[in-house]
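Title: Prediction job returns without error message
Component: structure pipeline
Severity: low
Priority: P3
Assignee: unassigned

Description:
Job completed but the reporter wants confirmation the result is attached to the right record. Sequence as submitted:
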Amino acid sequence: MTMPACAATSGSCHYGPAPQLVLETGNTHAPVVEIWRCTACGHGVTRPEMADVSPLYAGRESEDFLARDAGWVEALKNFVVRRLARGLLAFANPAPRVIADFGTGNGMLARALAAEAGADATIHALDFFDEPPAPMDNVRYMGFAEAARTLSGKVDLLTCFHVLEHDDDSDAMLQRLLAYLRPGGTLVVEVPNVDCVWNGWFGKACANWYAPFHRVHFTRRSLRALFERHDLTILREEDICGPTFALSLAALLGVAPNSLLFAVAAGLRPAQWIAEKVTRRPSALRIIARKS
């Protein structure tokens, strides 16, 4: 078993004699996986490893692409993401001219960044596929291979939301992200929190596990240590109250995510926010850093 660097020691993570969880995924590429956690820093990994995770996303069939959103659900998410985009743009100083959303999924964040950044900025949406997921007004969509050739060292602001956890080698993945940034460029990463308070409530159904797609499971400590290993200047760390409930309820009930479950989750949102604040065990972690 490959051991990532431990956030608590000077060596590699150390795992106990048995995994924390064994999950049946129903996915043909990884039907059964194990979640192992370091006994020192708590950082988690999904095993067996996958040399190439791209088959998991063939056809944009996973929930990562949010293809089911429609009507009032889509409208509400667009409103929230527009607010998010305004906040992210404020971290890049001076105002970014070249912006990229890595692992754009359905392109919602990229479109919001384009709407908020103004005419002087160029927005790029990057993902596995050569074709965009939907019409991308005012956004330049490109696959990862093309993006690596054309955007290397040019990006002022790079966003990467719920993507870093989808690769077995976090250090290599972060290096890949940093290659896009110019010196002084800003990187914003958000990942699920393995210490989320809801892991205990929902158990194996908790959306934070999301096996086999989530390959690593960050703690606050292990995420910070990753960024520090790559000599990034950390500007801010944030606890994020993410959309855990709807996806977790769907997994618990054995149904596809739908607008009814989203409505239930929205109604429970105040209670979710309070619980995460009181326990300091948020559903997601966000870190904003600057490249030297």
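Comment from assignee: result matches the submitted record. The domain at 21-290 is CATH 3.40.50.150 (Rossmann fold).
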